[in-house]
Amino acid sequence: MYIVNTSFMVDPAVHAMWFEMLTTKYIPFLKENGFSSTVFTRVISNDTPDHFTYSLQINISDMAQYKQITEELFPEYQTIAEPVFGSKVLWITTLMKIIEY
């Protein structure tokens, strides 16, 4: 099992529009494409008080799903978000392996 984690740092000037797009369009899009196990959180940090920081985590079972997310679904987000938000929303994605102990 894996977790695909995408962290977003959002400028307050576009926060409301970005938040609505992510919660009403993009997360439902992920779920429509078979990724129903998602967790969306606000990251509380003293390091970036002038921005909003969020984490979107998607549980996946294998690398084929990771490939689908990174090659098909994230580009969809990028196509929609980049022209609208530009550098006012920065994001980075990491892949984490769940360690069973």
Coarse morphology: globular
- Summing up helix and strand content along with how strands pair, one would put the structural category as alpha+beta
Distance between the termini: 13 Å
- Succession of helices and strands: EHEEHE
Instruction: Give the count of helical stretches.
Output: 2
Q: Which segments are poorly predicted (pLDDT under 50) over 5 or more consecutive residues?
A: none
Tally the beta strands. Answer: 4
Strand content: 25-35%
Structural account:
This protein has 101 residues and is of the alpha+beta class. The protein is 41% helix and 33% strand. Strands 2-3-1-4 form a 4-stranded antiparallel sheet, covered by helices on one side. The chain starts with a strand and ends with a strand. The model has no long low-confidence stretch (mean pLDDT 91).
Short description:
The chain is α+β, with helices and mostly antiparallel strands and 101 residues long. It has helices spanning 15-32, 63-85; strands at residues 2-10, 38-43, 52-60, 89-97.
Protein topology:
Layout: E1 2-10, H1 15-32, E2 38-43, E3 52-60, H2 63-85, E4 89-97
Antiparallel strand pairs: 1-3, 1-4, 2-3
Helix pairs in contact: 1-2
Structural features:
101 residues; four-stranded antiparallel beta sheet; 4 strands
